[in-house]
Amino acid sequence: MSSLPSPPRATDGTTFDVRSPVDGAVLGAHPVHGPAEVREAVRRSRAAARRWAAAGWDGRRAALLAWKRSLARRMDEVAEAVAAETGKPVHDARAEVLLALVHLDWAARNARRVLGRRRVPSGPAAFGRRALLAYRPVGVVGVIGPWNYPVHTPMGSIGYALAAGNGVVFKPSELTPGVGELLASSFADAVPAEFADLFLVVTGFGGTGSALAESGVDKVAFTGSPGTARKVAEVCARTLTPLLAECGGKDAVLVGADADLEAAANAIVWGAMANAGQTCAGVERVYAVASVHGDLVERIVRKARELTPGRHYGPMTLPSQLAVVERHLKEALAGGAHAPLGGPESLRAPYVHPVVLVGVAEDAAAMREETFGPVVAVNAVRDLAEAVERANASPYALGAAVFTGTREEGLAVAERLTAGGVSVGSVLGYAAVPSLPFGGTGESGYGRVHGAEGLRAFASARSITVRRRAGGGTDLMSFATSREAAERMVELGRKLHAWR
Ligand code: NAD
Question: Locate the Aldehyde dehydrogenase domain: which residues (predicted)?
Answer without folding.
Answer: 12-463
